[in-house]
User: Fold this.
Amino acid sequence: MRWRIAIIAAMMLFIFIFLGGKLVHDQLINGQGMARAAVQMRSQSIQLKEYSRGAILDRNGIALTDCSKDYALYAVPGVIKAQHGDNTSLKEALASVESLLSPHLHEDTQQEIKNHLAHAPTESRSLLRIASHLEEDEVEAVLDMNLQGVMVAPIIKRYREDGFAAHILGYVGASGDEGQSGIEKSYDHILARSAADLELVSMVDARNSAIKGLMFRLRQDQEDNRGTVALTIDRRVQELAEMAMNRHVARGAVVVMDINTRQVLAMASRPSFNPYDNIGLIIAHDPYSTLTNRALSRYYPGSLFKILLTAAALEEGVITSGDYFDCDGAYDFNSEVSISCLKKEGHGHIDLTTAFIRSCNPSFIAIGERLGRSALLEYVDRFHLTDETLRGYIEDHDYSYVDIEPVPAALGNASVGQKGVMLTPLQLTSMIATIADGGAWKAPSLVRYTIDQQGQVHNLPEEAKEQVISPQTAAVVRDLMEKVITSGSGQSAALQEIAIAGKTGTSQTGALDYNSTPPREVLNVWFGGYFPADNPRFAIVVLVEDGESGSQNAAPVFRDIVKGMMDYY
Assistant:
């Protein structure tokens, strides 16, 4: 019996190969030619797509939605009733079929069929999908029964159940009529009620009897490009980012950005979610904020903020590459207030390069004091660091900020990326891309173009870059970031095949893990960088919540993504 499942699976593959508008109209499922019936024929159609919505594509035109398949059960109530004779009501005929099917199906499938048949329309020729997820043993059982008016056929699922790109795509309500989050929500006016592009059609005669060879057939709608949103995401890179996170990250985020265009190639958040799960239950019982897109959520950036501080101080001329700093393990503001260094015994008398690659807190607090609060805030504005813009994407944000009180300790905390500085992984990726691009800033984007329901293409307009620091200053910071990889805290991100530049980071959250004895402080750890170091093309930021260090937890994720991208670019 498995050969019949193989035929259905082959049909699924056939559908996906030709889904882009190449499927011939009225292709018969059973492969027979389109005979001219000598009787009056009537038809009823139903979409093979799970939801009547437009497509969301990646940058290369590859589908991010409607790209997985399943087995579904379809029925024509009129044909079912015709098998039972005129003395049997439609309700009785459907109940009879339900009783025949139920012993061979799983409990959840039984309930789904019961619900659908209970609400079957009075129009007896209607074509219904009565179950949307059949296991192989259920498919075998239904095929063995050979019931007239009942058929197993594909259903094109809107989402992958593994949560792929779930925070970007979002999800729809139970009926599929309205986007609830992500791109589905932002572009609901384009995606909702889009033209059907693949239908299953039932053919019956005037007496509701099945017409041999024409009971079910496929029909392709050639207007299938309407209601489309094409993202900047590269599906291959998104896969790499998500696989790397699955291996290394329970909670955190990854952003991958094209440095030249500032288009986001991947944006992943963990934990992810299955769009088919009960979202209400997730919201009600979710200690990890599963639905939150952490790539767009604010965090203390820790030592990644030292990249901006270094650039600002160099640009203002308050430090040079040859300057030295003293570290005895802490920076004391007064007898009661101090900020410690990660190296308890201190780094001693060190130059700027050593301070940067070892991420020495007292050295950067000294740099922050030389630069001053007003100048630091000016460079935050120059870099558009707290700008929430993600072009093409409209959603409530977590509202990042850099808010420094006019007291020395507050400036000291900000200088090491702690209190007063809250930024998103996306914003930090944009900052690194600015450094890698010779000091030129441009807003990041997530959408390339849309096609509305009238078939009109709308491209996002190009925007010019803005020079925010000199190329010379950017070159000095780039050299420091390269040394982090070759001789500093980022060596675990290094690859022999390609030169990388980056910066590790560790940020205190203020939270304690009381499951540890004694309770330990929860740290968020970072790695941000770009590659190739000598000709920057891609910027990547990795955040890992509740980690040990950026080099231990975040840098390996960065390395895995870079290694995979080398096969594509």
